[in-house]
Amino acid sequence: MAAAPAPARSESPRRDVHRNLNILAQEPFLRMLHLEQKRTERSRRRFVLMLLESGNLLSGHGRQEALNRILSALCKSTRETDITGWYKEGSVIGTIFTEIGETDGNGVASALLARFTNALASSVSIEQINQIKLSFHVFPDDWERTDDGDGEGGNGVSPLYSEMHETDAAQKCALWTKRFLDIVGSLVGLILLAPLLLAIAVAIKLTSSGPVLFRQQRVGQYGRRFSFLKFRSMYAQNDPRVHEDFVKNLIAGAKTEGQKVYKMTHDPRITPVGRFLRRTSLDELPQLWNVLRGDMSLVGPRPPIPYEVRHYDIWHRRRLLAVKPGITGLWQVTGRSRVGFDEMVRLDLQYAQTWSLWLDLKLLLLTPRAVLEGKGAY
Prior knowledge:
alpha/beta, Alpha-Beta Plaits, 5-stranded mixed beta sheet, two-stranded antiparallel sheet, 9 strands
């Protein structure tokens, strides 16, 4: 009987190391990353994602040996419950350090950096270490820390949300079409509504002191900050703590007896002209400029104020991950101020999961009727 052929030697070292470390390929690793996010939303036990970018270390001669040395260092600095795999196949290795608890995430990241660096120094040469770039990402990350000092923080997409921006060719085409419609729609709207915009500006200026436009920092997709525009509907120099306290109680689920409206209905800070603008949603028209700039879309979730996000539960943040915020959307058309905060988030998530160009067109067509009916507008 002929002997069975021996397995190719060139593949055996990699297979042995990968099996011992239980390294995952890119697709299952990203699925595990998404699963850990879901688990953290329930357990509130944070995790750290470590990314190792290898530069040219894993692309030239001696690639296999260098990979085995890196994996050896990972074996020395990870637990059995940690998950290691390709974040980007062949170039970026990721390790998920699970359930770090409620301790300071940045302190844990620093300790992990020191532990892995020591293990790496005993396995890899100095020249090779200089080619490696390490980064640590704590989930849930602190969006407040993304501010880069100019009020436009969070300019990059966090690696923690990779599954949110991995799109196929068809979806990319749809997103480009959505952006094209946003540009055309906002530009046409600003031109056609110019006389109305001017009339509203004059009315505001003649009836109360202060600027015509109200500018406010809002949180956009992936926690990016941008300057949000509205026609000013309140008296100048009012106290924002009134609204902040209301939002805090709303998100926490606190209600007054018999409450059926989930919005401030008798806000003393609103001017008479501002009350009309709010009831007709005309105060929102300057956001067409935000759409033209690319901060917002015509259709999407409403962008929150930074102090709102500070009171968010972990799962609430998902409403700002999949799609850009918008002027109108599923909540504005179907729920508005008549549903609680959690239900509003669920409507936003429903929109993100079922999004299509046809749904956007349908919501845009339904918006005028919702505005004219005025239900939930205060």
